[in-house]
Design a protein that fits this description.
Layout (H helix, E strand, L loop, with lengths): L1 E6 L5 H10 L12 E7 L5 H11 L3 E3 L2 H7 L2 E4 L7 H10 L4 E3 L7 H13 L4 E3 L7 H11 L8 E6 L14 H12 L5 E8 L2 E7 L4 E6 L5 E6 L4 E5 L4 H14 L8 H19 L3 E2 L3
Parallel strand pairs: 1-2, 1-4, 2-3, 4-5, 5-6, 7-10
Antiparallel strand pairs: 7-11, 8-9, 8-13, 9-10, 11-12
């Protein structure tokens, strides 16, 4: 049995991930028969909200330390809102070989990207994470269409989503991963550079240059999210984010069950490299090359 422990319960992500595992359908069937969220360590949260998370997620236990969480669980999801806090726990768990999911943003610095890669190379652990939008049904279907050249040669695309430079949770790192990871999944993990044009703290455009085309990330707090693909036969697809917790959990559980050990974390942290470039582009008002 995969007994999953959650680290960080301040975000609704905690009970949403738990519901994907712990709540059966009307016929009593579970999404993942051999996986349950069994305990939480609400390191970033109040006692009152931890209790709410337990109730909404049908989670049996709350603990008061990582050591106690490890006594109850054999897989872990690191869910604090601030990506800068993730490596403290990832380091301890990966070194012990535990499967680990790291919520978006996986981290927030180049140093932490290198740290995670070094840990993955040294230890045999399953490491998953990031935005669940990359596993969204519409994104998967659109990716298949692009691969089949349904739109002819791609000339570019636009993805609209939300982010806030002034978010108390590490600024643009908190929400921008959603748009960036959709882009990477659809158009490839090899962008060259970014140029950011800022109108306000939550209204800006990121022009992401690939060798083959330009992708626009229109960050303007508009809803719903659309992906517009420009080609000989273009399309506009509305993205429904309702399945992101289920599909992210599905990827984590399946990867554990298949014991797909992670030795290369480049794809997992590519969104971090891009957001670092976006941040620099904002500060310098110039095009910035993405660090590979």
């Amino acid at each position: 049995m995969i007994n999953i422990g959650l680290i960080g319960t301040q975000s609704m992500h905690a009970w949403a991930f738990a519901q994907a595992c712990n709540i059966p359908d009307s016929k009593g069937n579970y999404n993942f028969p051999d996986a349950r969220v069994t305990a939480v360590y609400g390191v970033d949260d109040t006692e009152e909200h931890i209790k709410l998370t337990l109730e909404k997620g049908n989670i049996p236990t709350a603990v008061s330390s990582l050591e106690e969480l490890m006594e109850h669980c054999n897989a872990f999801m690191i869910l604090q809102r601030r990506g800068g806090e993730h490596m403290e726990y990832a380091d301890q768990l990966i070194r012990k070989g535990y499967p680990v999911f790291i919520d978006k943003p996986v981290c927030c610095t180049l140093e932490d990207m290198k740290r995670l890669q070094a840990m993955a190379a040294e230890h045999d652990a399953v490491i998953c994470g990031g935005s669940g939008l990359k596993y969204n049904k519409q994104i998967r279907e659109l990716k298949q269409q692009i691969a089949a050249q349904a739109f002819g040669p791609i000339k570019g695309a636009t993805i609209n989503h939300s982010a806030d430079m002034d978010s108390p949770y590490d600024g643009i790192f908190f929400y921008l991963p959603h748009a960036v990871e959709m882009m990477l999944e659809l158009f490839g993990y090899h962008p060259v550079s970014v140029k950011t044009t800022v109108f306000s703290h939550n209204n800006f455009t990121v022009c992401v240059k690939y060798e083959e085309y330009m992708i626009n990330l229109a960050i303007n707090s508009s809803s719903p999210c659309f992906v517009v693909v420009n080609g000989k036969n273009g399309t506009a697809v509305q993205v429904n984010s309702g399945d992101i917790f289920l599909e992210n959990m599905r990827n984590f559980v399946t990867t554990i069950e298949q014991h797909e050990v992670t030795k290369d974390t480049d794809k997992l942290t590519k969104h971090v490299a891009i957001i670092l470039a976006v941040q620099e582009s904002m500060e310098k008002d110039t095009e910035v090359k993405i660090i590979n």
